[in-house]
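Please decode residue identities from the backbone states below.
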């Protein structure tokens, strides 16, 4: 008789986890499970090339300290984006192909984040039902929708609920020592994949959660100091454990610190104006014609800002907030919500200039990414509100009042937009135009277009590729000027973008009116919440999907570059993608950047309409061996019908896959067959990366060194033979009789050292940045010699030792604090069960 009860108990325990995982699978579908992977955008232009280099490094059993094919070379480990020491990366990219590893990393981390949000909700005191809705809201929130192409979004974001949940246990759990050990491990694991911004957001969120909890303990007269010390020790342990990645990156960040000014840090914020996307996530995001008036005006973009956890999630969070006085569980997530919303406003928040001067806040741009913390707080509140619905006296009245308020807010925004166009029409009330102009003048930016200028742009065709590509996805293959003008179709655009919101508001209202039993009401709301977030990711997914297969097998252009690797750098529009096949793009795309020969690189990529001008000479100076001409440049060259002078006759390649990755499937389909045509051309002369410049003339360290001056100096330069023993060691043979400056067209980073090898013995040499940031070594003696350059990561050894000690201590503490009898006691104590 006891067996059915045991089975019932097991099913009731496992069912919420199954629901959460099934929802995460549905949210991802068909990515991974349907045999498809994201393509286009940052997936192909940034991540896959970089992770392909990591995969090759793992198979060669070497640490990629220096990435010799990333632009003009760059510190591979220090830039952190590969996540070299992140265990899942080592397993996935060491065993699977790059494309498969990238896809299944997305799947695994999304499932991990879904489970983590369920567990964290339980730690915050929610029951299984409340934890389920909290996990649904957080897993499908707007942050993960817009950051679907970014591997750092899901890799580091998936650890956020585990980190915050563990921090809560340090304060409220029955075993704070064990919880602090787990917190240290989770913090370190979140840092190791690189892109530390989400790690910093998690750490600040932890501080908010722990300080709020400790203040509560202090007011209640309960011990709090020891738990505060345990929390602090967890952060110290985490920093030490991740030192193997943090040390090299901190060294690079110090070198690149001049790039982070206020304008850089303040860009891409979640402005107060865009808070409407918490209610209407499609508004201002479907039509590309909003780009100038609604996004560029605020120095942000739809690719960075989408605060949304679902209308149902917002409804339930509001239900929790109205009970803040009667439920102590609401206080901590409410405080976290306020703090993250404030930080997400960036330059629009009071005191932002002071804030951007503080450590941590002065490292990262795009304050809109704080919305991941806001989404977590709202999700916890939604779970609490879900539980409160059953005890609410008039839930139907509350739901109808909420939907009415949301509808009125959306209508108010529509009135604001209509008023902006009305204010710039002839005969409009002058006071209305002044009101909008004052609003523009109050923004924190200087030198921006005025209100009248922005509205004039909205009345002209928006001739931008982003607009034509987006309209192609709407079935408009060749848009007319009217279709590219926002003011001409404003009412149709507004209706299309708000229609999903009106449908969901109506559906929620119907559910609120028809469901008389609280349990039925809650189940229906869970269904509506899941459907809405699934609808959002289907319609707002920022990338196309393609088959999970080697990209080089799909793209003839990439396959050709693979066969030509080692014969010079490549100029094309795909940024990091050629790295996937071992080719070196001169315009490598990085997040923590050290600019080098910026103007020379731009000149090397200029149009070939004037083939005897700077493009050929600049390509020679930059070591370019190949140039991939895209369909736009192909059409321009074919119209000229003239030879390319210093370039070889282009070899035409039909490459549909490359076209889709660069321009989007809809645009390619709408512009066949020209949209699939690429060509490869090479300069008439060998490509080399090492030169000797006679005399003492050189340019200084500025990355904006004048192109004309660089090309003048390079006219008298003689090419040298450079060989790489490995990415970190370069040898340049210099024949007898040559003196001046030996220039290697790679980044002059402080980690490089130089030695002259000659029959008389080895002699150390000095490296100086020349020609806009290249590596320059003076050669005074005319005898034949070999210049040996070697790169060493200056902080790696001490950082690795610190990490090894920290992880050994962490494992020891993990074993020492293990108590089988207390398994589950932490969560039980936190939830009161």
């Amino acid at each position: 008789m006891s067996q059915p009860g045991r089975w019932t108990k097991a099913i009731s325990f496992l069912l919420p986890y199954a629901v959460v995982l099934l929802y995460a699978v549905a949210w991802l579908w068909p990515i991974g499970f349907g045999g498809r992977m994201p393509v286009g955008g940052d997936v192909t232009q940034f991540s896959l090339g970089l992770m392909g280099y990591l995969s090759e490094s793992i198979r060669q059993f070497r640490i990629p300290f220096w990435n010799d094919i990333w632009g003009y070379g760059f510190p591979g480990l220090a830039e952190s984006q590969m996540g070299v020491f992140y265990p899942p990366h080592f397993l996935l990219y060491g065993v699977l192909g790059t494309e498969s590893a990238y896809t299944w990393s997305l799947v695994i981390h999304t499932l991990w984040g879904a489970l983590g949000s369920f567990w964290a909700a339980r730690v915050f005191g929610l029951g299984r039902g409340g934890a389920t809705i909290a996990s649904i809201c957080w897993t499908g929130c707007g942050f993960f929708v817009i950051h679907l192409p970014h591997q750092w979004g899901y890799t580091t974001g998936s650890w956020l609920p585990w980190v915050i949940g563990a921090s809560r246990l340090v304060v409220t759990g029955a075993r704070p020592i064990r919880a602090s050990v787990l917190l240290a491990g989770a913090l370190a694991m979140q840092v190791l994949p690189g892109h530390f911004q989400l790690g910093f957001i998690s750490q600040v969120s932890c501080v908010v959660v722990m300080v709020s909890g400790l203040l509560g303990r202090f007011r209640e007269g309960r011990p709090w100091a020891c738990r505060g010390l345990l929390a602090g020790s967890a952060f110290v342990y985490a920093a030490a454990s991740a030192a193997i990645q943090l040390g090299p990156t901190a060294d690079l960040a110090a070198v690149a610190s001049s790039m982070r000014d206020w304008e850089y840090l303040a860009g891409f914020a979640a402005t107060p104006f865009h808070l409407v996307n918490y209610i209407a996530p499609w508004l201002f995001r479907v039509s590309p014609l909003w780009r100038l008036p609604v996004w560029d005006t605020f120095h942000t973009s739809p690719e960075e800002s989408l605060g949304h956890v679902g209308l149902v999630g917002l409804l339930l969070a509001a239900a929790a907030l109205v009970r803040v006085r009667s439920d102590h569980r609401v206080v901590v997530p409410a405080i976290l919500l306020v703090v993250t919303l404030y930080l997400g406003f960036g330059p629009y928040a009071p005191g932002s200039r002071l804030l951007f001067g503080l450590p941590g806040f002065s490292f990262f741009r795009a304050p809109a990414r704080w919305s991941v913390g806001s989404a977590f707080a709202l999700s916890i509140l939604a779970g609490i509100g879900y539980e409160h619905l059953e005890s609410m006296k008039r839930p139907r009245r509350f739901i109808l009042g909420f939907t009415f308020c949301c509808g009125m807010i959306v209508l108010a925004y529509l009135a604001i937009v209509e008023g902006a166009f009305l204010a710039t029409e002839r005969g409009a009330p002058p006071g209305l135009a002044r009101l909008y102009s004052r609003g523009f003048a109050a923004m924190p930016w200087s030198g921006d277009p005025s209100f009248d200028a922005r509205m004039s742009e909205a009345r002209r065709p928006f001739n931008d590729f982003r607009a034509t590509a987006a309209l192609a996805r709407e079935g408009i293959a060749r848009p007319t000027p009217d279709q590219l003008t926002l003011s001409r179709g404003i009412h149709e655009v507004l209706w299309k973008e708000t229609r999903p919101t009106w449908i969901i508001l109506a559906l929620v209202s119907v559910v609120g009116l028809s469901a008389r039993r609280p349990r039925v009401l809650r189940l229906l709301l869970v269904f509506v919440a899941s459907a809405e977030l699934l609808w959002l990711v289907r319609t707002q997914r920022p990338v196309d999907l393609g088959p999970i297969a080697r990209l080089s097998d799909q793209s003839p252009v990439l396959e050709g570059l693979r066969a030509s690797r080692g014969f010079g750098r490549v100029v094309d529009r795909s940024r990091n993608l050629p790295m996937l096949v071992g080719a070196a793009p001169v315009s490598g795309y990085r997040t923590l950047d050290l600019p080098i020969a910026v103007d020379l690189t731009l000149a090397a990529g200029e149009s070939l309409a004037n083939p005897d001008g700077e493009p050929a000479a600049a390509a020679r100076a930059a070591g370019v061996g190949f140039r991939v001409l895209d369909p736009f440049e192909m059409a321009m060259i074919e119209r000229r019908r003239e030879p390319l002078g210093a370039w070889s006759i282009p070899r035409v390649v039909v490459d549909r896959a490359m076209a889709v990755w660069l321009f989007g499937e809809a645009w390619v389909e709408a512009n066949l067959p020209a949209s699939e045509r690429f060509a490869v051309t090479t300069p008439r002369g060998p490509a080399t990366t090492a030169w000797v410049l006679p005399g003492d003339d050189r340019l200084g360290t500025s990355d904006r060194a004048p192109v004309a001056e660089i090309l003048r100096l390079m006219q008298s330069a003689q090419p040298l033979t450079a060989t790489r023993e490995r990415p970190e060691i370069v040898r340049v043979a210099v024949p007898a009789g040559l003196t001046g400056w030996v220039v290697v067209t790679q980044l002059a980073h402080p980690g490089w050292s130089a030695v002259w090898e000659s029959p008389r013995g080895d002699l150390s040499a000095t490296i100086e940045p020349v020609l806009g940031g290249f590596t320059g070594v003076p050669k005074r003696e005319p005898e034949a010699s070999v210049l040996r350059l070697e790169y060493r990561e200056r902080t790696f050894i001490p950082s690795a030792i610190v990490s090894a000690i920290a992880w050994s201590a962490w494992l020891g503490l993990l074993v020492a604090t293990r108590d089988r009898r207390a398994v589950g006691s932490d969560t039980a104590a936190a939830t009161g069960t």
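Observation: Residues 821-825, 828-833 have pLDDT under 50 and may be disordered.
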